[in-house]
Each structure stands twice: as C-alpha cells, then as structure tokens.
Design goal:
The protein is an alpha/beta fold. The chain is built from 13 helices and 21 strands. Bound molecules: cytidine-5'-monophosphate (C5P).
Length: 401
C-alpha cells in the first residue's frame, strides 16, 4: 500500500543531541516511503553528525544558514513554504525552550516560526534534564499550541545510565509522522460548527450574569478541527482569545443571540460541538439604567429560563453529529448519561469542575467521554488541545461512513 508520505516534502530538523546520528536512519526510512527530505541542522548538531552524511542520504543539501538565499528566497521562507511536515528528531531541551517561547535565532527555529504545517518533536536528553520543571512546562506549552510530541522513552542514555530521555526509535517516529499526515485529511470537505465561551445576560447598563468560562476548550476544538481538514464555523461568547483566522467567526453576547446564529447555520453543517457555557437563565427585565444601591437594601432578581440550544438541535438533528459538554460537581457519569439521552447526543464530554486542572479558565482538562453506545473513555489531566484531539478522534469514529 502506498504511504501518505509519498511525494511529501518533509523538513527534518536535527539538533545537538547524541541521538542526532539516528537522523540518518530517519532520512532513509522517509525516503523509502517516497518522501523528499530537506535536512535542517543547528550548529550544535554538526558536532554529532556531519552535514555531508545527511546531504548524501537525503540527496538534498543539509541547510544551516539563516541568511542563505535558495530557491530565490531567504532559506527559512522557502523551506517553510515547501514543507508538508516539520519533524525535529532529535529535539533538545534548548530548542524546545526556544520554540515554546518564540525565539527564532537560527534557520531551524526561524523556519518553525514561519511554517503553518504540522510540527512533530522527538525529544532526546538526559533524564535529569527531562524531569526539570522548566522543560516539563515547555513541553506542556508546545502541546497546548498543537505540536505533536513523540517520546522520549525509557532506555539507555548517553550518560550510560538507564532512564527516561531516550529518543523514540526511527521506525516509530516515521510511523507517527505518517499518522499525523494522514489525520490532516480526517475531515476534508466537512463543515462543523463549534460554540465556545460564556454568554452574558445583562442586568442593567453595567452588570451581567455570566460564568467563568474562558472559551479555551472551544477554541482548541476549532483549531484542532481546522488542522484536521474541517471547515469550522466558530460562534463564541465574550472571550479574550484570538479566533483561528481560517474559521468563519461570529461573536455573540447572549444565549438568545447564540441560539439565533446556531439555528441560522445548522442546516449547512455536518455536526456541532457545543462547548459554550450557555447561561441557563437571563434576567426577565433589563434595567435601562444602572441599578442604584441606595434605592433598596436588598435586591431580588427575577430570572427566566433561556432556551436549551443543544436540546433543540437534538430534536432536529437527523444524521448530523452532536457533541455536548457538561460541567458537573458530582455524579459525573450518571449526569453525563442522563444529558446524552435527554439531548439526543452522539457524544458528551463531561468534566468535574471541582478537580484541580479541570473546567473553567484553566489550560488543562480532565474529562470523561461517553458516546451514544454508552462507551466511556476517561482522560487524565492534559492540555485542552490534547483533549480536543481525542474528541475529534471520537467524532471521526462516530461519523456516518
Ligand atoms: O444541561 P447542561 O447545561 O449541563 O448542558 C450543557 C450542554 O448544553 C453544553 O453542551 C451547552 O453548550 C449546552 N447548552 C445549551 N443551551 C443552554 C444550556 C446549555 O445549548 N441553554
């Protein structure tokens, strides 16, 4: 069977780790599956493997120089443009740190900054370095920005010790690269709607009822969906986040506005991922001016229920795919099951907001996925982007053939 790597251009970054010698085998394996390989080395990498080795195996000159002109352009721009995938193997703690913090001071890191294609990192370092809190924080940052990490693994290290930090073996890395490229086409030609953020329900000219929702889960879903080939309509309540430029974006304020937009777009989409924390209630009456404290010693708010948008969609969904979310403080599984049935969903993503590292505002989530057949997947704490990846995996499984 022909590999998805066939006729693809892979930018292979090599950084200064002893594992750099294994890059030679990665070039071989990529070429064997039909890819063109463009090696880009850091200066440090040249201490571990000679550029000529990579040049010969790749049949492409290994690049190092940020200021060289090739293919009529600055090298980093032409590389960023021609690549279908960036794979950095091995990647050192230093280069991960640079990428995580937006430092671009050589050809490799500058190219990474300029590219829009998927980026795979295969770390290699000593166990002590790998366990360093700053390295772990950088890894989390890179993952939350949608980068793919493979390894490191437990095994023999350059120090002679056995521990975690060994780069994954080349065949495993190349299989992984194949899977990532494959997933780019998962939702090609499909249109999904994602809702995100809170809604705001005005009380008077200055105050509103809302929730702690930040929009992070919904925006991560939109980004991941786009990366996997879907067209995305993103409908968001107030959020400080920047919507992905490829999304068709609508900003809304209230639950009623959100409902209007969702209904307007529903007939065109293949599915909806309703991550928004829609306010269940709104004030019956919005005061025309500011409510004054000296007019009363206590204040009773008269609230009316907002429409349950997702429940409405559940009634008219036909074969469209519906994903709901629920934030609970107890009996997670029971409540998820109840809502899945009540709203006629294909999948529900439930999180217990009492857990540290889950729910509103934070960068990570701990969720339970329950599908329409009752299959449950529990995900431990991970970045919202990684949770989004798992949700889209499940959506793919549940999509009609
Ligand atoms: O019933 P509950 O509010 O827990 O359900 C949450 C799910 O329903 C979320 O997916 C949320 O976006 C959606 N929802 C809605 N309209 C509402 C309230 C919640 O679509 N008024």
């Amino acid at each position: 069977m022909s590999s998805v790597l066939k006729d693809k251009s892979i930018l292979l970054g090599i950084t200064g780790s002893i594992a750099a010698y294994k890059a030679a085998e990665i070039v071989r394996l990529l070429k064997r599956r039909g890819a063109s390989v463009y090696p880009v080395m850091t200066q440090a990498a040249t201490h571990f493997i000679h550029p000529l080795t990579l040049t010969s195996l790749a049949a492409q000159e290994a690049s190092l120089d940020l200021f060289e002109m090739k293919r009529g352009r600055m090298e980093h721009l032409s590389l960023a443009q021609l690549a279908d995938l960036v794979l950095i193997a091995p990647v050192t703690a230093n280069v991960m740190g640079k990428i995580a913090h937006g430092i671009a001071d050589d050809l490799l890191t500058t190219t990474v900054m300029a590219t829009k294609v998927p980026i795979i990192l295969a770390p290699a370092m000593d166990e002590g370095m790998y366990e360093n809190a700053v390295v772990q924080a950088n890894i989390r940052e890179l993952k939350s920005r949608g980068m793919h990490l493979i390894g490191p693994e437990e095994g023999e290290l350059a120090s002679g010790e056995v521990g975690k930090g060994r780069m994954s073996e080349p065949p495993k890395i190349v299989d992984y690269a194949e899977r990532i490229l494959q997933s780019r086409g998962d939702f090609a030609g499909k249109l999904f709607m994602v809702t995100a953020g809170p809604t705001r329900e005005a009380l008077d000219k200055v105050r509103f009822i809302s929730s702690y929702s930040s929009g992070k889960m919904g925006y991560a879903l939109a980004e991941e969906g786009i990366d996997r080939g879907a067209r995305i309509i993103l409908i968001s309540g107030p959020s400080p986040l920047i919507p992905p430029p490829q999304a068709e974006f609508y900003s809304v304020e209230t639950a009623l506005e959100m409902r209007k937009r969702v209904m307007e777009k529903f007939s065109a989409v293949d599915g909806v991922l309703m991550a928004a924390a829609v306010s269940d209630f709104r004030p019956k009456l919005v005061h025309k001016s500011k409510i004054k404290k000296n007019a009363c010693t206590s204040l009773k708010l008269d609230l009316v229920q907002n429409p349950d948008i997702l429940k409405e969609l559940g009634r008219i969904k036909k074969d469209k795919l519906l994903v709901g979310f629920c934030a609970e403080t107890s009996s997670l599984k029971e409540k998820a099951e109840e809502k899945l049935k009540e709203k006629n969903l294909d999948l529900i993503v439930a999180n217990d907001i009492t857990l540290e590292g889950a729910g509103f505002g934070v960068d990570t989530n701990i969720v339970l996925l329950m599908d329409r057949d009752g299959e449950v997947t529990s995900l431990d704490r991970r970045s919202k982007r990684e949770v989004a990846r798992k949700i889209w995996d499940k959506v793919k499984e549940l999509m009609p053939a």
